[in-house]
Protein 1
Amino acid sequence: MPLPKVEMTIFETILARRSVRRYKARKVDRTTISILLEAAVRAPTAIHQEPWAFVIIQDPQLLRSLSDQAKPLFVAEVQERGLERAGHSYDVFTSPSFNVFYDASTLILLCGKTAAPSCAADCWLAAENLMLAACAMGLGTCVIGCALPALNTAETKIKLNIPEKFSVVAPIVVGYPDDEIIHVLRKSPVILANFQAVHNG
Ligand SMILES: Cc1cc2nc3c(=O)[nH]c(=O)nc-3n(C[C@H](O)[C@H](O)[C@H](O)COP(=O)(O)O)c2cc1C
């Protein structure tokens, strides 16, 4: 794989990554996508199953139609699970102009073989690799979990060439950021216990 030239250390990259929700129109090229996928598949994988596979969508019309399908399904799921009481406002999902993919030029669907023993864990580790690699290369990313109900319908999977034995685990938009960097703060790590060796005498 051609290694991209990046200036950031791994720790700088971890600190710099954040969810980007405004993108420039500039398309992400195929070489860059290949590098991101190569980074993804370097993730640890339980009993070396490598259960992942990818769908790349760069067709704005398809992205818009998937977004339109995603909004009502997500709202229905939120209502069914009582999540609207969790302090979030979901009104934006009823707006016709809202694009759940934030008009990013690229959506990468990280799919997993559902029957693999640690399918979700493997795919999420691959997802973080992909997002950190993207960040180091000056790209923004955002996980779009709200699109999962729509992406995993039988009809959509057929349309997107996703075999029945796979499901979409991590939809990630990728693009060139068009906003100020706003870092979402984190709580300090909660340490439940810290056991040290006992020294006698
Ligand atoms: C499983 C998962 C699903 C997410 N789904 C969405 C989503 O549908 N839309 C969105 O804008 N952000 C989504 N996010 C991004 C989170 O909102 C974001 O990671 C969190 O607020 C922390 O901000 P940061 O990524 O900038 O550090 C999702 C993140 C995860 C891990």
Protein 2
Amino acid sequence: MRRQNGFPRTAIIVFSPHGNTLKVAGAMKEGFHSQGIEPTLIDLTGAPWHEIRGFAYSTLNDYDLLVLGSPVYAGRVIEPIEIFLSGLPSTEAKLAAVFVTYGLISGNALFHAAKLLSKKGYEILGAAKIVASHSMVFEDERDQFILRPSQEDLELATTFGRVLVDKTNHSGLKRVSMDMLKPKKSLAVRIFNKFMATRFGMALLPHVRFTKETCIQCGRCAESCPVKILTLDPYPRQVGDCIRCYNCVRICPTGACMTPRMWVFDMSHKIISRIYKEDPLSALLF
Ligand SMILES: Cc1cc2nc3c(=O)[nH]c(=O)nc-3n(C[C@H](O)[C@H](O)[C@H](O)COP(=O)(O)O)c2cc1C
């Protein structure tokens, strides 16, 4: 690991199946650069489950500030980030920040990540939620779902990096309050988020099916799997827990990887986005 003279020595840790969170992390790095800091980007995407569970946390000892980035999945941070945070050793007086990318409802995600970090003794300096294309929406043509993060969203991410450096360098450091991160949503949305975070909620997300008849064994599905649970023997087969990112479905050139119930999601998504009045907004919380 490279030691830096600049303060804070920063690690940005992300998991990004579809690439939005990684893109936002790149913009955030620019903000650090503008303040003379070179953060280390630790991209956990593509690490198999055992590597995430066995992450060498001692490699983080030299950092002053950890910035965690995750997509929102069912109103929470994605499971590999949750596992990473759960295994993080407790610390005293270390700093952290969190950011999520999301397509429609960020739900409990920022609060969830910040709570896991603060349980480990981290002071939360700031949080950001950045709107991005919804990686589960296959058929919605509205700009909101395909053209984000926009230039403005990315500029906000750059500002986030810059402000984090400012905050760590100035005395009288102000932490973000947990109350600010709590979603102030209607009861119905809160119940929906809570339900979706359970085993039953996740079970509603369509499963991926593989069809031998149309599979050409190109292996693109296995390459695209961010938790490396697909094996070709000789046809694709899941050998671990699927996070339902649907990368394999998107990338398959012959439609052999498919989600038979995806129309249910597309329909319910359209309904939710109409009932849910608030437009998704990118925002920084300090
Ligand atoms: C299984 C799944 C669940 C999702 N759940 C939510 C959600 O609850 N709220 C939301 O706003 N976006 C949700 N999304 C959209 C992602 O949060 C969004 O597309 C994110 O930018 C993806 O990040 P990535 O490109 O780094 O993978 C979900 C996407 C998937 C695939």
